[in-house]
Amino acid sequence: MTSEDDRRESSEKASGSDRRERHASSDGDASGEGRLPGVPDGPGTDHSDVSGPEAHGDHGHSHDDHAHGGHDHGDAAESTDEGCGCGGSCGCGGHGDERTADSVEAVADGGAEAANVSSDGELDDLEFTEPAEGKSQDVEDGRPDEIVNPPEGAQPGTPSYSIRREMNDIETPDDKTWFMELDEAVIDEGRCIQCGTCVASCPSDSIGIGDDGLPELVKMCTGCSMCWDFCPRGGLRYERQWKITGGDDNVSGAGDPITEFSARVEDDWREGSQDGGVVTAVLISLLEAGEIDGALIATESDDEPWKAESFLATTPEELIANTGTIYNQTMALGNLGLDQWEHKLPDEDPEDLSLALVGTPCEIEGIRALQDFEWEYGGQEAGVRAVDYTIALMCTKNFNYHRLIGEQIREQRGIDPEEIGKMDVLHGELMAWDREGEMILQEDVEHFHDAALKGCDECADFTGYCADLTVGSVGSSDEYSSVIVRTEQGLDAWELTEEALDYHDLEDRSAVGKLQGWDKKKAFDSLERPFDPDAPRFIEYADHAENYGTELNPHEAGH
Asked: Phi first, then psi: what are they for 77, rounded to 5°?
């Protein structure tokens, strides 16, 4: 006896064999010319080789689907003498001329057959749009990731990280921190100081620099926590880093320096430099002595006047051409990837390279913390390890380029940035001179507070506690730079340079100490967390969120 399953299996095998024969002979069989899979050829055509499942294949239906439409396959087979047993709506052609206009209309309204096929199996006229030549398809002027004309009721788009919990009920441990936490607590809150430490720390190169100069996610975040841990406004307790770098005495006053000087360069090129030109002189001395292969400094953008960009100087001429200070950040540590500078560096093992880094105190805190660990830092690894000399610029605050130059100086004060030859912040005032040396701006720096980076208010590191050398103007007379030597490495750099300098003991140590004290008080008033040089170096995100009121697990809250 043959069971129902056996008969079905035999029928399916026969049907599959028929299909294989049709495909094999379609190119040379005139009777198959113009035939579409699953579409009858019209009255009088032999359809014995067209099976039910094949007819429905393009629509994704099986016979079981149609059972829900009110057709009982068993009853149909019993009540029809010559029917195919499919209930009359399968399109197999086994019903002969019994198909009516109503059945064709039903097919056109969503039945099993193609809507553009007439009752006699002929194709209706089709219209084709010729593709445009020489240009891309016009899909409106929206965002490139927007779906044009989505179906009604559809909500296209990438789901948020909350889908993880919905799918598998996984809860993220509090100590696993993602870039979204850094984004939530620091970047979106306007507290980012644009040091670039998060970019340098990412082992998967998932963080880049956006057009707005802020960190942004460019690849999938792995949740390694490192961008959070090393951020001086996030997980890095920067005052603890002072102590780790310089010892127990490096947390009070202006720190614990080896020695301090007021100095200036006597060469003619100093005229275009900031104060005494000491930073440039030190870098030239290191370069000419073969101690470094280059120095990561700031240069002025070719496109936007007084906008700072990172630049690797590898010659004395490049260093002299870029003297002076530009009052906005460059995301310096995010530009330590050596690939972008390979055309300027000697063709040798990256492990043998030596670089100097000039930056703000927060940038020096960041590079010191990164170098304290043997973790891999992706594309920035070789650059991080190559930094052998660090020079911090005394700093109470830095500025957002567009708010300072565009809004405050150009729009509100009517000064064309192209006309500015030099800028300085000295004695609590922001000053600017034109290219002929005439002063065109002199105002209390607090008048520009709205242009300052909000995160600078939380910084207590005016004098760069973690640097080898600190250089600024406070504590010295005009045309001299104040120099604080903090480490043995800094002392070596100073001794290479001192012959080219006019220098003497620092003129006013109290001025440096007073401004450092003011800077600390400002930071204590702004910090929402405890200031504690003896606490652990890294702050858990959960602890930070408790102090600052930010979202826990923002990636699961649709951030």
From this structure: -65, -35
